[in-house]
Amino acid sequence: MDIISAINNEKLFKPIFKDIETWSSWIVLLKALFALKMSKPERILYQQCTGRQKSPKKPFREAVCICGRRSGKSFMASVIACFLALFFDYRQYLGPGERASIVIIAADRSQTRTIFNYISGILHSNEVFENCIETELKERISLNNRIDIEILTASHRTVRGRTIAAVLLDEAAFFYQEGARPDTEIYRALKPSTATIPSSLVLIISSPYAQTGLLYEMHKRFFGVDDPETMVWVADTLTMNPTLDKKIIERAVDTDPEAAESEWYARFRRDIAAFLSIEVIEACTVPGRYELPPLSDHHYRAFVDSAGGGGTDWMTLAIGHKDGEKMILDCIRAVPPPFDPFVVTEDFVKVLREYRCNSVEGDKYAGDWPSTAFGQHGIRYVPSTKTKSEIYLAAEPLFSRGQVELLDHKQLFDQLRNLERRTRRAGRDLVDHPLRGHDDVANSVCGALVNLGGSDGFFGGCDLG
Questions:
Q1: With left for phi above 0 and alpha for psi between -120 and 50, is residue 374 left, alpha or beta?
Q2: Residue 219: what are its φ and ψ, rounded to 5°?
Q3: 3-class SS at 149?
């Protein structure tokens, strides 16, 4: 049975759709995905949303659905997952005792729970589906046909070691938890896991965001291309969900046009881009160099990103020196929460003394406690004259000219790669970490580099005597 027949069947999926007519655009997408016959109006919508001219002759192995918010993405992803788990027989591709997985990966646990609840609800919606359930755990449902439906958070490590029949990446544009390019890392890690099942499917469903990352690269490469393996579908919210109140979108456009273009009209944001490219960061990184010892003929400068220890921010320290035109990073210290900030300060002071630094610069927004904490140990704390964004913008030419030598430090690499440049209509660009991201290490490192570069920086970070 094909997926459209299953959706239209009163004993199968149809009861879970409140009004099947309002899902007509999703029906066209499903017909395209599984190479089912389309009517003339459906072919027109297919061509509009994919930029393709030819109707598919076989089911796609990969599909990217870029749709606006509240368009029904998570629900439809759950329907597809259940259909693939219930109506396909993968046993001919499995070894003795081996099970195949239908994997749903989302940005965070809250999102994965939403999808898992949809899937569980669908499987319990009728007796036919419910009888297929063998066991149901918190994050996995095992069926009696040797299929496991699993939900995972965004990590390239979690997809290894499985035989994957299908994987659905939900809101892939917002995978920031781990790695410099977690979406790409996950995609690369899961591809071998799907190789042994000829009918396997990789489905990426997401609202768009910045012009970077896996979603953007797939769009750029495959939208409008009649590729037999990969389809890219792009549609605004109202195309996919005509029941949504238009006034909600109109108010969003009035409040923030750029954000509304992305969230509701499924267009990649033109005001957000990667701050530094992977190529630039790699060119500035010295492989295998993890720390340099303090030497008597170098003059060092230090920058600290202070934190209170009770939230999600790390407390970090970076120390570097200048050699001719090169800004060389010597040392990084990074302490995750929870921690006692005064104990961490004492540890940082020991490192500062090793590098003969009697002063350290830091964020002026940290308040008075860093000055007091460092002052108790005879280290002068000087609030930075620059904001965090200004530090990044001042560091950019140092990176682009190759005047920087970075340590081989994964957290630093990841945070630099994830930094976003936001173009503002008036005034200078703004650089910051993405939503749910961190930049504590990047901030302290760039602060030290800018000071070494001598661009309106602080020059009291070391003992020059």
A1: alpha
A2: -60, -45
A3: strand
> Within a 10 A sphere around the Cβ of 387, how many other Cβ atoms?
14
Give me the CATH code for the 3-270 domain, please: 3.40.50.300
Q: Is 291 left (phi over 0), alpha (psi -120 to 50) or beta?
A: beta
Closest Cα to residue 98, out of 166, 168, 167, 164?
A: 164
pTM of this structure: 0.72
Are the beta carbons of 234 and 266 closer than 8 angstroms? yes
Asked whether this chain's domains 3-270 and 278-453 adopt the same fold, the reply is no
SS3 150: strand
Q: Outline where 104-256 has alpha helix (H).
A: 109-123, 127-130, 182-194, 213-222, 237-240, 246-255
Which residue(s) pair with 199 in the sheet?
none
Tell me the CATH number of domain 278-453, given options 3.20.20.300, 3.40.30.10, 3.30.420.240, 3.90.76.10: 3.30.420.240
Whole-Å CA distances, 80 to 73, 262, 402: 11, 25, 48
What would the pLDDT profile of 229-279 be if each residue is shown by its tens digit?
999 999 999 999 999 999 999 999 888 888 888 899 999 987 778 889 889
Q: Angle 193-196-198 (CA atoms, 0-180°, nearest 5)?
A: 115
CB-count burial class (<10 Å; 0-12, 13-18, 19+) for 95: exposed
Q: How far apart are the first and last CA of the chain?
A: 82
Pair 272, 211: CB distance under 8 Å: yes
Task: Name the residue ranges covered by the structural domains of the chain.
Answer: 3-270, 278-453
**CA dist., res. 444 & res. 317, Å (int):** 6
Q: Is the peptide bond before 338 cis (omega within 30 degrees of 0)?
A: yes
Q: In this predicted model, what pLDDT tens digit does every residue of 52-94 receive, in sequence order?
A: 999 999 999 999 999 999 999 989 999 999 999 999 999 999 9
